[in-house]
Amino acid sequence: MRVTVDDVIAYCLAKPGAEESYPWGDGELVCKVGGKAFAFIGLPGETVGVKCGVNAEDAAEWRERFPDDITTSPYIGRYGWNRVRLGGGVPEDEVRDLLDRSYDAVVAKLPRGKRP
Fold it and tell me: By C-alpha distance, which of 105, 56, 46 is closest to 76?
């Protein structure tokens, strides 16, 4: 099944403590928890940036599995962030898994008082 931007937005914002912001204008929605980003959703390009590992090497596994649809995120790729093209070859359950992992990684680093 094809994953849409609307599916990703709904899935992200349904997570405990999730909030949306548009720090760079209407083209990119940033989903945050505890004030920290866990998903960068490119609205016109139908992409989502997610935390896939501690660093670029950890995140490389995903890029190797889906070379046509997952690339290193610009500017923050060295910190383990990848960009996923929606509607491509990454199955819906894998996209959800990536969103869950990104959310969980960010929540784990939040101070206890900011965790949902």
Answer: 56
